[in-house]
Amino acid sequence: MTDPLAPGGVIGILGGGQLGRMLAMAAARLGLRAHVFDPARDCPAAQVAAGHECASYDDFAALERFADGVDVITYEFENIPVDALDILEARKPIRPNRMALAVSQDRLEEKRFVAGLGLQVAPFAAVDDADTLDLALADIPPPGILKTRRMGYDGKGQFRLDGAGDAEAALAEMAGAPAILEGFVAFEREISVIAARGLSGEVAAFDPGENIHEGGILRRTTVPAPISPARRSDAVLLAARVVNALDYVGVMGVELFDTRAGLIVNEIAPRVHNSGHWTQQGCAVDQFEQHIRAVAGWPLGDGARFADVEMENLIGADVERVPQIARQRDAAIHLYGKAEARPGRKMGHVNHVLRG
Amino acid sequence: MTDPLAPGGVIGILGGGQLGRMLAMAAARLGLRAHVFDPARDCPAAQVAAGHECASYDDFAALERFADGVDVITYEFENIPVDALDILEARKPIRPNRMALAVSQDRLEEKRFVAGLGLQVAPFAAVDDADTLDLALADIPPPGILKTRRMGYDGKGQFRLDGAGDAEAALAEMAGAPAILEGFVAFEREISVIAARGLSGEVAAFDPGENIHEGGILRRTTVPAPISPARRSDAVLLAARVVNALDYVGVMGVELFDTRAGLIVNEIAPRVHNSGHWTQQGCAVDQFEQHIRAVAGWPLGDGARFADVEMENLIGADVERVPQIARQRDAAIHLYGKAEARPGRKMGHVNHVLRG
Asked: SS3 for B125?
């Protein structure tokens, strides 16, 4: 598929969480149909999708059926099993491509890839056991953070080391999984750029936002970030370099540390990103539609922003504040259709439109 | 149901066209589930709804099943058969209420109701046959327009009379249905107000937009309408009087003629309205969410507008221009998931964000 997908075409979405849900609604706005693959019967995306293949990622017949029913496949999360990808890719294009997935599935590969582009990353070293952790700590003195190379998100599978005495506990947290030690970076703020690259290679980026995390989970993104125009350009050009190097198609979230020594790449996510939710209120084409446009071979939106926005995540019991938030002027509410508000669970978000 | 509907609650929507589709997506944004009642298997709203009762309005068992599965019932069109409403209302609240439906289902009742509020309407007279048409034409000289009292929209079931000689052809067009003769109004522009009234009686209105029709179909709405602040207030107060008089709950579209003699009410629609689609890009809470908030017993958004918008309908083959429109800066595309682009069929719309 290289022609733009016509209205009525079908976008296959792997993963039926809130990102899949908002991707499905964006596809619908463009007259496209969303088919979701997710093992959970009442997952957030299935509630708004034209189709739902309710099966696990090791159900190869279901994967084949799913691929046969769609025109192009995309995803809302990066940890898709390789076997599943092999089956799907034999039948339909997967966008963003496998290289983007391979790089982002492995924190060590990701750091090597980004550094290989000449971009700054935090000091890092591979850690497989106590010996390699000792060596790594000699090179990268604490404080630092030990992370599993694969899986883990929102602060899971991570352990903060404040001294060499934490080594044993940190390793135990990894449970034998290959890991990576990352040195702490002294940064002024964390920002992120939501970039997009189209099928024909054009690149667009939204204005960088400033992110505030709490307990390893994104709490708030404010746009525009309080950075200089030069730093803003740096951030956008850096993101463009990453998506071009990967021959990327779709939206990518690039988390950056803004430091005195320039921008340091923290993490790349080959998908729409929580820190890009503000675009729903600030732009004619939001990150979800931008992603759908890219994977469907449509022209990209230009990313122009026409409002200042503060995005606030509603985590766990935060959702109980919705009746109050609903009374606030200029608050746009986005809930995810999740039944149970467990601690740490992202239940929704609010975009506060700060200025028109 | 008088408490606000909690996330996970179910909104029943009668009618699965584009208005139902956009209502369903708005419900999803609030964490509510949309169940659609529509006889067409692949109707626009079913593609994005959590549930679809695919049945006709004379399938009483299906209507009962539908009502049992939802918390509150609303609708995207006013011509719902009375028998169906009786069955539904015995089981769940219908919002907006039956009075609003009764008034808007019958053009003569509507005119009498609006005039009874002390508001201006075009000269009108009931027409049942050739004799009453003769009398009416004596009272209201041509040009005028003969319309069936019930059904008909987008210019259907209407006949323009330029002289008494058109009487026979006009009557023939009515095919024996009770009709109403309306005198033409010399107006400077047509505007509309999208008003909303909540369950607790609070009223909110969006800025009036100016409407341009072509061939009896809305072509374009521009917001803000080029009217004086005083006229804008008049329009909003007038709409508030209408919704209060009906003890209305939900969004109402009020079409007005802006004339030298003041505002004349052309038509009221007890539902979200094509001329309110611009709110999707211009407001934190758009007309669809506003309607869902009202029928779900949530607080209303305040209707504040943070951008100027021009809404353009994509009718029939207009949809072929989508690839070009997708390249336009600040164009937000909304397509309805309709397979076939028949002439006169509303396929989608575009909101051009004119100024932030």
From this structure: strand
- pLDDT at residue B155, rounded to an integer: 57
Residue B17, helix vs strand vs coil: coil
Tell me B176's DSSP state: T
SS3 breakdown of chain A: % helix, strand, coil, rounded to 5?
30, 30, 40
What lies within 8 Å, CB to CB, of B228 at 6+ separation is none
pTM of the model: 0.94
Nearest Cβ partner of A356 from B48, B326, B356?
Answer: B356
- pLDDT value of position A152: 65
- Judge residue B104's burial from the number of C-beta atoms within 10 Å of its C-beta, 0-12 exposed, 13-18 middle, 19 or more buried: buried
pLDDT of residue B157: 80
In B, minimum Cα distance to A46 occurs at B50
List the structure tokens of B31.
């964490």
- Look at B24 and A334 and tell me if their CB atoms are within 8 Å: no
Question: In Å, how far from its chain's centre is CA A36?
Answer: 18
How many Å apart are CA A190 and CA A173, to the nearest integer?
A: 26
The upper half-sphere exposure of residue B258, i.e. CA atoms within 13 Å in the direction of its Cβ, equals 22
pLDDT at res. B282:
85
Residue A88 backbone dihedrals phi, psi, to 5 degrees: -65, -45
User: Do β-strands A346-355 and A331-335 pair in parallel, antiparallel, or remain unpaired?
Assistant: antiparallel
Q: Nearest chain B residue to A33 by CA: give it.
A: B47
Mutation site, A29, A52, A327, A354, interface B, largest B CB count within 10 A: A29
Token output for B154: 């987008």
Question: Which pLDDT belongs to residue A154?
Answer: 57
Instruction: Mark the ranges of chain A whose per-residue pLDDT is less than 70.
Output: 1-2, 152-156, 355-356
Question: Which residues on chain B are in Cβ contact (under 8 Å) with A24?
Answer: 48
Are residues A348 and B8, on separate chains, in Cβ contact within 8 Å? no
Put simply, the answer to whether A337 touches B33 (Cβ < 8 Å) is: yes
Residue-level pLDDT at A153 = 55
Say whether A156 sits in a helix, a strand or coil: coil
Residue ranges of alpha helices (H) inside B273-355 are 279-282, 287-295, 322-325
Average pLDDT over residues B92-119: 96
The whole-number pLDDT of residue B247 equals: 97
Quote the tokens at residue B210: 């100016």
Q: Are B257 and B190 in contact (CB under 8 A)?
A: yes
Chain-chain contact of B330 with A47 (C-beta, under 8 angstroms) = no
- Return the bridge partners of A10, or none: A33
The tokens describing B139, both together, are 């009272």
Considering only CB atoms, which chain B residues are within 8 Å of A323? 4, 298-299
